[in-house]
Amino acid sequence: MAWTWSYSDLDGAPIMEPQEPCVTSGFPSQADAEAFVSDTWRELLASGVGFVTLLDGDREVYGPMNLRAE
């Protein structure tokens, strides 16, 4: 299965057509997916992403995870 992120805006509404820097093609491992968010969370937040949810295929692994520092 491919590891992917689903994205929600700052209000928690799903982002159906994510734009850069969101990657929609998937990652080969959970570690790669997590490293992507770790490296790009500021850019994701600046592009309007407020929450991310990690998926393994169709299975939700965890999330939604808030990208904003509370």
**Multimerization state:** single chain
Q: What low-confidence regions span 5 or more consecutive residues with pLDDT below 50? A: none
Quote the average pLDDT: 91
Strand content: 25-35%
User: Could you give a short account of the major beta sheet?
Assistant: 3 strands, antiparallel
What pattern of helices and strands is seen along the backbone?
EHEE
Give me the Rg, rounded.
Answer: 11 Å
What is the number of helical segments per DSSP (H or I, 4+ residues)? 1
Summed up, the domain count is 1
Class by alpha and beta content: alpha+beta
Give me the count of strands: 3
Fraction of residues in H or I helices:
10-25%
Shape: globular
- Spatial order of the strands forming the largest sheet: 1-2-3
User: Roughly how many Å apart are the termini?
Assistant: 33 Å
Account of the protein in words:
The chain has 70 residues and is an alpha+beta fold. The chain is built from 1 helix and 3 strands; from the N terminus they run βαββ. The chain has one helix at residues 30-46, and strands spanning 3-9, 49-56, 59-66. A 3-stranded antiparallel sheet has the order 1-2-3, covered by helices on one side. The longest helix is centred in the middle third of the chain and has 17 residues, at 30-46.
Topology record:
Layout: E1 3-9, H1 30-46, E2 49-56, E3 59-66
Antiparallel strand pairs: 1-2, 2-3
